[in-house]
Description:
alpha+beta; elongated
Amino acid sequence: xxxxxxxxxxxxxxxxxxxxxxxxxxxxxxxxxxxxxxxxxxxxxxxxxxxxxxxxxxxxxxxxxxxxxxxxxxxxxxxxxxxxxxxxxxxxxxxxxxxxxxxxxxxxxxxxxxxxxxxxxxxxxxxxxxxxxxxxxxxxxxxxxxxxxxxxxxxxxxxxxxxxxxxxxxxxxxxxxxxxxxxxxxxxxxxxxxxxxxxxxxxxxxxxxxxxxxxxxxxxxxxxxxxxxxxxxxxxxxxxxxxxxxxxxxxxxxxxxxxxxxxxxxxxxxxxxxxxxxxxxxxxxxxxxxxxxxxxxxxxxxxxxxxxxxxxxxxxxxxxxxxxxxxxxxxxxxxxxxxxxxxxxxxxxxxxxxxxxxxxxxxxxxxxxxxxxxxxxxxxxxxxxxxxxxxxxxxxxxxxxxxxxxxxxxxxxxxxxxxxxxxxxxxxxxxxxxxxxxxxxxxxx
Length: 445
């Protein structure tokens, strides 16, 4: 059954199961003129309760199910749905949706379950013809027709009474049919329930058989579990005994632990005191070590100071001797230079010979580092050709040409020496330790 808003609810219920007397259609014409709207009048009896999906359809005569409607309109709900009295209703079909042929049709009221609750007499959609025009007859025929009408009226009253009786019987039969249908539905339901119960019974039988098999397995499992329970019980008793023994032993251990904790606390206090004493002793020891180290350093410094003083005295003596020797050499050098300048006008070679004969070689060994200017006097006797053209470094024995300037030669010799910034005493660079000691001695003065 389709219950959407576009299609009415229908069913495949046959005509034998329909109740045509619950809705009565009134003032149904024999024919309706095509192209005009059609108004359908009907009465809802007290045997029907209208619902929101009830509808009125136009069916072609000879229909079998409610699905064969030509067109339909939703049936409006009355203002009082639960009224016990009959309710007059009407509905209008638009001409556009009406049939265009001259077949016989009828109105049918269908509830939302798709069951027909009432049907009208057949009618046609065609124009008015001459056969439908009233024919005027004579007075005798009128009297005869009136007599016939009276008889027909009498028969009509009898038929109405009979119809009322038949309608009552029909209502009773409808109620009995309804009860029969309910019983039949109940019977069908019982049959379906019986079939379901039989299926369930078969299923339960199979399940019972399966459960019996499972029961046998479970009995064996239960026996095995009982044995396991007995074993577990014996194990439990044994473990309880062991647990009791262990608890007693644990109580003893706890008492021992308490005693140990007390001892540990006492020892901790003692250790704290010992630690404080140790820290105090460490501090005293550190102070003693510092004092001893300072004393040792003072002793070492005194020794070094005495050694430095002794070295200073030795160096000072050597310095004095070197100063005296240097002074002598300067005086001799000045004399030689004066002799050379006086003899330069006679002959350079004769001056060299006189200088070689008259000037003794200076004793360089008397100086601490030697005289840097003694090389000039020492080399005067090397030969007449080499005296004026060769100069030799007393530190590295490097030979210089004749045309080298005296300032360059002295700068070279000075590069091998270290000069004291305090007393202008010179030392060889190879003896830097002596130079450092000399400076240190100045610092002690």
